[in-house]
Amino acid sequence: MPSILVLHGPNLNLLGLREPGVYGTLTLDEINQQLTTLGRELGLDVRCMQSNHEGALIDALHDARLWAAGVVFNPGGYTHTSVALRDAITAISLPVIEVHLSNVHAREEFRHHSMISAVCTGTISGLGVQSYLLALRGLSEKIRAAAA
Fold it and tell me: Average pLDDT in the 102-117 region?
């Protein structure tokens, strides 16, 4: 059974409390539960991790290259600032799908540019929890196609 890392960046631990009009009312635990359930249905072992620290996110990406078939990644605010996360994604040679709960292009101008999109397999944003679920489905298809 292929393993997938779902990696959540800074402030996502406050989902359900933080700006529910922008990010929704689901908690991170509820999102992780939906991802784990869908993963089982798709024949994937989904492992979820959240950190507010850039270095911990980089370490998780580096570690994933040893056990994961791919990554679903919401880098939060680091999306717009982190060359280091971009370099980590490039270094691990795994398919990575960037996700965002909100439509970053309908928000403040500084959120319109992603430092990591160009090195990701795909990007899904603006669909709330469905962004994550669609990313997991897409990653599952990509992994299965590569194995065929």
Answer: 71
Number of domains in the chain: 1
Q: Which of 131, 124, 136 lies closest to 36 in space, CA to CA?
A: 136
Q: Is 113 a catalytic residue?
A: no
Catalytic residue among 8, 78, 100, 132: 100
Catalytic residue of the set 8, 23, 78, 132: 23
Q: How far apart are CA 43 and CA 63, in angstroms?
A: 22
Residue 100 is a catalytic residue: yes
pLDDT-derived band at 110, boundaries 50, 70, 90: low
| Residues of the domain holding 135 | 3-147
Q: Mean of the per-residue pLDDT values for the chain?
A: 91
CATH (domain of 112): 3.40.50.9100
